[in-house]
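Researcher: Go.
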Amino acid sequence: MVGVTIGLLALLIIYQALALSEGYKRTTQAGGDAQSSGMIASFLLAQDLGNAGNTMAESAVETTRCPNTGNFATTWRPIPALIRDGGADNVSDSFDVFYGVNPVLVTPVKTIVTATPGNDIVVQSPIGWAANQTFLITDQQGACEIGTVQQVVLDPAPYVTTTTGILAVRPQAPIAGTYGQGPSRLVSLGVNPQKVRFDLAGDTLRRQDLMTGAAPVPIASNIMLMKAQYGLDTDGDRFIDTWASARDAPWREADVLAAPLGQLRQIKAVRFALVVRSSQFERQFDAEGRDVATAATITADLTIPSIFPCNGLVPCTGEMTLVNLPGTAGFRYRIFEQVVPLRNQIWNPA
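Model: Structure:
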């Protein structure tokens, strides 16, 4: 009887030790999963944001005449990134990014003759053009349209004997409008240019291709909040001097879609914050019955003291304080913040 009693006590102690260690293991693993999800999501967002404006920044003077359709997916104005505010600090934002992918030719080229429907587009620039590229053609009257290159003809007649550096871009489908000689410009966006949208659906971060209109693709889960702000150079010294929310004029969605080139040039960076949740629900008591609740996230909804904190620095703009997320009790969280310079906007200030 004594031996059985001792064995039962030992077994009980062992089970409690295993349960306690397994609880700590799950908590640690869940925190690690949140850390990994946040790092992957931040990397993917920064990768597209860093490329924002490629090709479009170089051709901004020409494409700023393109009409404002009121829709980022259909306008060809030189908007590198467009943030949509969620309406409150605890409601997620979304944002769109646009960039071309031509690694050789990133400047617009002028038309040699008037481009008309059904004919080739003759331009002066033999470099950087190839079949299957996407092109954008625009004129000074504000006409803009895109197409796909079917074929490129070097030195087309009658220019083969009189002028060098001339080629004819043959569209796969005829252009719809007429674009006059000289003032009109042709911009190569490369093969598969990117116009994408990042948003949250529930707790899932998604990426949608706006060029094709394909369904959004999930890229990370357990993302509870995403906030974004513009980094602006308002005095032209090439340094960011303020951070602006897309909730405030003149940086609301409709404002930016219609903004003049001077205002669009002020956008030099975008910063975003992600609040990532662990996948493991945290119990209030551990295996030994001890209260493990903390003020951070276990028994109360998450309240973030500060997003984009100023840390006492003056001047400072854009800080959001005491952001409460309802329905978030019982989990642990990681908060990621990152500033992404829009290098194409920085390299092409004028």
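Model: The chain is about 20% helix and 30% strand.
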